[in-house]
Amino acid sequence: MPKPKTDSKERLIEAASRLFAQQGYQATGLSQIVEESGAPRGSVYFLFPEGKEQIAVEALKLSADRIRHLLHSTAENSDTVTDWIRRIAASMAQSLEESDFRSGSPLAAVTLDCVNEGNSSLGQACHRAYDSWIEDAAHLLQHKYGMDRAEAEKLAVSAIAAIEGAVILCRARRSTEPLSIVAERIAEWVP
Amino acid sequence: MPKPKTDSKERLIEAASRLFAQQGYQATGLSQIVEESGAPRGSVYFLFPEGKEQIAVEALKLSADRIRHLLHSTAENSDTVTDWIRRIAASMAQSLEESDFRSGSPLAAVTLDCVNEGNSSLGQACHRAYDSWIEDAAHLLQHKYGMDRAEAEKLAVSAIAAIEGAVILCRARRSTEPLSIVAERIAEWVP
């Protein structure tokens, strides 16, 4: 029995998200996404008539939603901001190690590959994805941890920047040490 | 009169560095590097017999050396670590604006594109390039600003991670605000 369309769609988005996180947007061809997904080749033209960029917009949403889920699930188990940041960093360090430092920072990888198309739907999707992290982190800092709004927004931007940069350093140096160092430093920003 | 070989070599490396910073490693073809450089097509096979990866290793060195130069030149005019960090961030913000947010973070762009080749000469060049920034920054923090060695190294790693991440956020959001916010926060780490 052929797989239902929704399953093919999810598998294509999932495969694209994984490949972009590993090797960036430009290196990933539509045919590699189809092959990695296991979805029938014909389905991609039906499901994503605009091709790779259209899949990428959905893949960015998926990657962003995963981090948003991580932000919320780690906050549930963390009584303090410091605990929360440590849990987020530990989870990212684990993902880096599990992928042998080949995967991580999916938004950064696509952002740096697509900026010449800054006003494209993909450039806008990168922008929205980062905004969604910042908004969710700021919301949690404000409503769960009692920070005032302006402070919460600044801390959210700074912590997300520092963690994104740390993940890239971890990949370059094939070590999770930068994430540990940065997580301890971010804790110093907590009022 | 044909251009001397050394000039062609520098122009190829310079063009590659600019293209990687704008669009990543994978999207940049050897023929685009040659075209952008204005060097004679034949010279590339003579100067870089191993092709794009060999040019990229040199381009990473060039990009890394530019940031190292920035670290030293800004330190010369800065009496305090806080001043120094503000000057670095201001210079990076200016570059982002001048390129209409199309260029920046050349190491991150190549790192995220080439990690599947983690043990390749290119992967190692990314690692060395980040190490050179961290070493230079830690050296300045220790010898110019009087921090102890362990503190200087941790601050160097954290500040470089935070600034790299901020540059990526700036590119995604087409705004220099993340860099300003992060620079003020890094200042809080200074003992």
Task: Give a structural overview.
The structure is a homodimer of 191-residue chains. The first copy, chain A, is an all-alpha fold and 191 residues long. Helices cover 76% and strands 0% of the residues of chain A. The first copy, chain A, contains 9 helices and no strands. Chain A has helices spanning 5-23, 30-37, 41-47, 52-76, 81-98, 106-114, 121-143, 149-173, 177-187. Chain A is globular, with a radius of gyration of 18 Å. The model of chain A has no long low-confidence stretch (mean pLDDT 91). Chains A and B meet through helix 6, helix 7, helix 8 and helix 9 of A and helix 6, helix 7, helix 8 and helix 9 of B.
